[in-house]
Amino acid sequence: MASAPAGRPQTGSDYLASLDDGRVVIHDGVPVERVAEHPAFAGTAATIAALYDTLHDDDSGVPLVPTADGTGLTHPFWTVPHSRDELRVQRDAIAAWQRRTHGWVGRTPEFMACVITSMAAHAPFFGRFEPNVRDMLARDQRDVTHYAQALVNPPVDRDLPPDEVGDVFLHVVRETDEGVVIRGAKAVVTGAATAQRLLVSHFGGEVQTEDFAIAASVPVASAGIRIYTRGIPAHADAPLSSRFTEHDALVVFDDVLVPWEDVFIRDPETMLAFNKGAVGWNVRLVFQATTRLEAKLERIAALAVRATEIMGTSELRGVQASLGELIAYRDTVAALRDAMIEQAVPSGDSLGPGPQAAMAFAAYGPDAYSRMRVNLQTMLASAFAHLPVPLDSLGSEHVAPIEPLLRGSGGADARERLEVMGELWDAVGTGFGARHELYERSYFGQPERMHLGILAGAKATGRIDAWQGPLVE
């Protein structure tokens, strides 16, 4: 990353060059020679590179703040917050990036800062690995390292403890003077093919033995790592999937050596407490996710309003009600995120977002997104699926005679109609759109689990007892 100006994170060119590191990516069963140039990954890689370039453009609207050691500048979400004002700066910085991608890239380079800054704010929690946690933040804060999160076990034998699925699940096979050697697989590692590092850990199921208690930072190009992805068609006339597709990868670790300096957890008790939110990373995760979803819903709402004008249905009462519900969904997401700031609580050496609003969103968001998608399908019906010709065919000899017939209402010509409806179709009707519904529904795991956590938290904090007080006469 030597080409980045002193004191600033990597540039877009640095990031793209870092992907040519010998990583092993198998896409649709075929090895990928150069990830940044492969049709399945080039659009997303270019999008992420453009985000890095905003950190070197003083007119981009993306604020920068000093690193912890004061020697450089970084994205604000990569710092440990100590006040509500700092949380607001972090919110605005996340939003500035997310509005550039309209919220369609879940794993932008600030995403994993939610975990790493939370770990640093609770560094003593990690015992003998405390220095490793602090060093990780210093390194990745400086570079704004692009991480993917490798947490989820493959969906097999989930009726068994993880320790009994050693033929599949990630575990430590031996320790050496140099580090730990890990073997097994992680599923749904979103964006692994275009990431620089993996944060490897366990989530879901309580590990019982040290062999399965492992959390570490691992370079994607480490010897023994193979990344398997499948294609989501991304042709030129699919404006979202061609730029923003993130592949959910199966990552296989075949005796990968992880140096001791990159290891953070090696015992079951710490692993369990980490997963249960002892360091606050799950709340910081919601803080980033709500800001991303806010940007996505803003874009969808704007397109939906224009689409009804193009259809000539914008004055129908039912259509207006559906549009109002969509905007209310966006406003609810933003309000819960801002409530997290107002309800902020001490969290280690930081001020963390409020957990009550965070858990409320995690419980509310999945069903709301699915309802939004159904409302769009009902409101726009066949109109956004009626795309008889590709946008780039307008003006061709075969299409020119019918181009006047492709116009919309509300002053829209054929080009605008195809652009608006084409983007909405990609957002809702294609494999890209369907994957995003699954992504939003599954973002925090099983919804029932969130509801159980909310009830347990309300009991533990005494809120239920307070609500059960005597009637006031």
TrEMBL record:
GO terms for molecular function: oxidoreductase activity, acting on the CH-CH group of donors. Residues 280-466 form the HpaB/PvcC/4-BUDH C-terminal domain. InterPro entries: Acyl-CoA_Oxase/DH_mid-dom_sf, AcylCo_DH-like_C, AcylCoA_DH/oxidase_NM_dom_sf, HpaB/PvcC/4-BUDH, HpaB/PvcC/4-BUDH_C, HpaB/PvcC/4-BUDH_N. FAD binds at T190. Residues 11-265 form the HpaB/PvcC/4-BUDH N-terminal domain. Keywords: FAD, Flavoprotein, Oxidoreductase. This is 4-hydroxyphenylacetate 3-monooxygenase. It comes from Agrococcus baldri.
